[in-house]
């Protein structure tokens, strides 16, 4: 599975509750959602972009952009080089040496 970032521009979205962001689609796995005052960024695992697009189009929020995540940078990866997002069957916790 690949990792995707969905960007939505929604005025006053920061006032929504967690119940407004439920995922019930078995073809995508929701990883996390970041909410600002006027934008929502959701991270999903799915086999391809079209699967994500189909899933997010069922909701009542607009979709402004869908991007495949190619690299994840964290404090843990800072000194080990870039960490490429692997295609995986299901998410697993990673520990870097």
Blueprint of the fold:
Layout: E1 2-9, E2 29-35, E3 39-46, H1 49-57, E4 65-68, E5 71-72, E6 83-84
Antiparallel strand pairs: 1-3, 1-4, 2-3, 5-6
Main attributes?
97 residues; mainly beta; Alpha-Beta Plaits; 4-stranded antiparallel beta sheet; two-stranded antiparallel ribbon; globular; disordered C terminus
Describe the structure.
This protein is mainly beta. 9% of the residues lie in helices and 32% in strands. It has one helix at residues 49-57, and strands at residues 2-9, 29-35, 39-46, 65-68, 71-72, 83-84. It is globular and about 40 Å long.
Report on the biggest sheet.
4 strands, antiparallel
What is the typical, i.e. mean, pLDDT?
Answer: 79
- What portion of the residues fall into strands of 2 or more residues? 25-35%
> Low-confidence stretches at least 5 residues in length (pLDDT < 50)?
91-97
> How many domains, in number, for the residues?
1
CATH topology, by name, is: Alpha-Beta Plaits
Determine the N-to-C terminus distance.
24 Å
Lateral arrangement of strands in the main beta sheet: 2-3-1-4
**Compute the gyration radius: what is it?**
14 Å
The beta-strand count equals 6
Can you give me a brief rundown of this structure?
With 97 residues, the protein is mainly beta.
């Amino acid at each position: 599975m690949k990792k995707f970032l969905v960007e939505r521009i929604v005025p006053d979205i920061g006032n929504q509750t967690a119940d407004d962001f439920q995922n019930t689609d078995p073809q995508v796995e929701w990883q996390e959602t970041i909410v600002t005052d006027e934008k929502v960024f959701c991270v999903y695992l799915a086999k391809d972009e079209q699967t994500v697009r189909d899933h997010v189009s069922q909701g009542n929020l607009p979709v402004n952009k869908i991007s495949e995540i190619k690299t994840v940078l964290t404090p843990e990866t800072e000194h080990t080089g870039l960490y490429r997002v692997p295609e995986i069957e299901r998410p697993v916790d990673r520990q870097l040496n």
